[in-house]
Structure formats: C-alpha cells, structure tokens
Recover the amino acids of this structure.
C-alpha cells in the first residue's frame, strides 16, 4: 500500500477497513486482525491517546478479549512491534536470497537497502510506531532497539558470507554495518518530509554514500 509519509495528527480518523460487528474467526486470524488495526490506531493517534476501547470497537470484539490475548495495552504495542520486526527480517532476507549466491557484493548490499525502503513504503504505520520510541511504553523501547539489532546481525551475517570480506576484522565490519543501519533509518525519516523521494532514490542515496567505504575494504586485483 502507499505510505503516508507524515505523522498523522491526533484527530486522524479511524481506519476505514475496521469491521462494524464481530465475526467469528480462529484465534490466530483474530490476533492478526487486532494487530493490524492496533498498528494503524497507535500510529494515527499515538500510544498515550489510544485506548483499548478504541481498538476493541474498531475490531468488533470485546475489550476483555484483547486483554486475554495481549495482557495490556503495552503488551499489545509490544506485539505490534514484534510483528513489524518479523516482517522486516523476512523481507530483507528474501531480497538477499533473490540476488543469487554469485551476485556481486554491491548488488547484495543494494538489494538489502532497497528492501528496507520498500518495507517502509508498504508498512508506513509500523515505521511511525518505530519512530515514536520516546513516547511509547518503556517495555516497548527494547523491542524497537531489537529491530535495529536484528538488522545489524542479519547484515553482518550476510557480509561474512562474502569471500571478498573474509579478511576484514569483525570490529571494522560491524562499524560499517552500524553506519548502514543508521543511514537507512535517517534517510527514511528524511523521506517523511520529502514525499517526492522515491524508493529508488532513497536506495541510491544510501548506497552511493556508504558503498565507497565498503568497496575500499575489498582486495584489489
């Protein structure tokens, strides 16, 4: 879906897709529905302004059912962030795998960066949640940081599979990985103020800035 690259106001309207009445469905399907709608509402109204009653009404279930599934509003937010973390990992790994085993390192690098921005475009609400780090419940902040750590670890593992980087010390390569993760996130934030910047342009900004440093680590023929 197309992203809305600006933080919605507290007066934003409720998701139009919310059901008007309760429909029976398996628990796993119901949990996914609750998480999807909760992600939208948290992103639109902010964590503090959102109530469990709001979400229950939009989903079309009782408030006790949401408490039964997630324990608390903080637990529901944590589940939303965990869901986003899993989705981002799957998208990134799929992009790397699609390049093929013999792909040049620059192509692999570019694929991972592009996958991040495509995820942001397709899951704009999840990105708003991640950017609300200072305002969310304290128990959610470690989960938000775990998204960064997950991406760092996955990128590091991918780079370590590249024979050309075999001789690069872990400490140095880890530093480059942290620069990549930070650059991707900051460019994504910048795009919320520059709606005309495409996924391809954002990818080019990060790759053109960081690749020269990574390329310098490769052995010269």
């Amino acid at each position: 879906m197309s992203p809305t690259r600006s933080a919605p106001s507290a007066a934003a309207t409720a998701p139009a897709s919310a059901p008007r009445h309760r429909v029976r469905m398996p628990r796993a399907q119901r949990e996914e529905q609750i998480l999807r709608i909760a992600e939208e509402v948290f992103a639109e109204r902010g964590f503090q302004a959102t109530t469990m009653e709001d979400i229950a009404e939009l989903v079309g279930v009782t408030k006790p059912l949401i408490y039964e599934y997630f324990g608390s509003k903080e637990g529901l937010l944590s589940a939303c962030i965990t869901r986003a973390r899993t989705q981002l990992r799957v998208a990134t790994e799929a992009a790397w795998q699609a390049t093929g085993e013999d792909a040049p390192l620059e192509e692999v690098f570019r694929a991972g960066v592009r996958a991040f921005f495509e995820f942001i475009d397709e899951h704009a609400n999840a990105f708003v949640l991640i950017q609300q780090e200072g305002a969310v419940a304290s128990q959610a902040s470690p989960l938000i940081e775990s998204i960064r750590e997950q991406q760092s670890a996955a990128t590091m593992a991918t780079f370590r599979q590249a024979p050309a980087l075999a001789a690069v010390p872990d400490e140095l390569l880890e530093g480059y990985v942290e620069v990549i993760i930070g650059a991707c996130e900051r460019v994504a934030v910048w795009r919320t103020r520059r709606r005309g910047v495409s996924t391809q342009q954002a990818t080019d900004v990060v790759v053109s800035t960081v690749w020269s440093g990574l390329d310098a680590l490769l052995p010269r023929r």
